[in-house]
Write a structure and sequence with these properties.
single chain, five-stranded mixed β-sheet, globular
Length: 143
Amino acid sequence: MSENEIKLSIKFFSATADPGDLTTLFGVTPDCTWRTGERILNSIQCHKENGWQLTSGVSTGADFGEHTEALVRRLRTLLPYAETAAHNWETEISCVLYIYEGAPAAHFDVDMVALFARFNAEIDFDIYCLGERRDARASRAAV
């Protein structure tokens, strides 16, 4: 476990398809769904498309490798439906890294990329280099 935070998921987007249809197709309960016009969590902005999300299910403090292994395990169960989902939904692998210290290793091997391609998924990285955590700065200042 590190000070950095990592979030890894697969997201499906559609202007017209219903997120419930993906839940039915996959037979899996998503970690998050949303509909066009609903507020984005912790924001005043609204979603522009319907969405369905399945996360790695791993703690945000785990390393990138743990996240990828967990997400790949979850995606393999959805493989029989990948082509149908890819036909009706835009798909992305979402990688969000909040960096407080060091530089975490973050890569996908060729098998993972091939799996993502079955879903016709783009890969999106959002990397936030934040420096030292606010609570760590406050503790040092108190000493």
